Amino acid sequence: MSGQPDQNPSPPLPFSLGYDDRDEEEIMRRWRAILRSNKWSHAAYLEEFEDAWRAWNELPAVAFDNWAGGAMAVLDHFKVRGATVLCPSNTFLATPRAAQLSGAEVVFYDCNRHDLCGSFDDFVAKAERHRPALAFIVHIGGHIAFDIHKIAAYCQDKGIILVEDCAHAVGADWNGQKPGSFGDAGIFSLYATKTITTGEGGVVVSRHEDVLRHARSYRDYGRGSGYKVQSLNHRMDEFRAAFGTVQIRRMPEIVAWKQTYARDVLDPLYPDRVRLPEGMSSGFYKYIVFQSIPTSTGKVYELPCHRIMGVEADLPNTDWVAKNHWCVPLYYPRASAAQGAPE
């Protein structure tokens, strides 16, 4: 397989992390430099990674050890303790759990069937009833939530802080606008299975300097705030930061390959799938279909969060989605890319 997808994918693409073997020497060169530098954390490679992320995301970035550390920093900044936080149930448990552990009351809202992301209609219904201080919107599967513009406008009008869970959304955009830029903050994941990865890691982005300042202090025991910010260690070390810089440089190629494969090979085979709105590009963390398939990587989420947490909630679309979607294998071919893809 070269840089162009095979028109007859059989058997399905084998599992592969979003990593290109051609980058190994560059990564090792960076790691050797770190070993010799005596600066293994919180130094030049972290700054380089954050600058590289900003160049793609077009927002200032603060790197973390994982998504959860970034989420806790954002929630701590907005002082949600004792407040209500809206959260879609169709998400990973980390999203509501971060709000819960921050002292907030979590109220779940429903998703849309066609994109698996938060429903504007149910968002408004729950917001009018519960008056949240903050709300999460989750970009699922690699695309941006279809109702993001309406939800963001509503939150701005009502004074609700909007936080984007961008864990899946690396490489996505909607008419050039990147995930994390619609609300007040965005939080990305760099976990091992993501489109680009540092093994473990996370990134907070925001257009608000006070959010960024708080995040930088929160990840480092409250340093820089006179220790008024009460937290522990959520720093990204230099090894992961150096790896992340190489990864984000490779990201456009990884995403472009997935987009081409999805368009040319998978779309003709799976008409009953998530269909993107005009102007939206997905990073294709997942390729989601609404038909049972013989070879699947499973569901995006097997169980909705309200089911996991034992919360009584009438969320018919969320329950429907859990039963009626599957993910087609779609992995960047790291070994073959190393042998034949264009530089």
TrEMBL record:
Annotated PROSITE patterns: MGMT (PS00374)
Signal sequence coordinates: none
Keywords: Pyridoxal phosphate
Single annotated GO MF: pyridoxal phosphate binding
Gene Ontology BP, a term: DNA repair
Short name of one Pfam family: DegT_DnrJ_EryC1
Transmembrane segment boundaries: none
InterPro entries: DegT/StrS_aminotransferase, MethylDNA_cys_MeTrfase_AS, PyrdxlP-dep_Trfase, PyrdxlP-dep_Trfase_major
Family: Belongs to the DegT/DnrJ/EryC1 family.
Stated name of the protein: dTDP-4-amino-4,6-dideoxygalactose transaminase
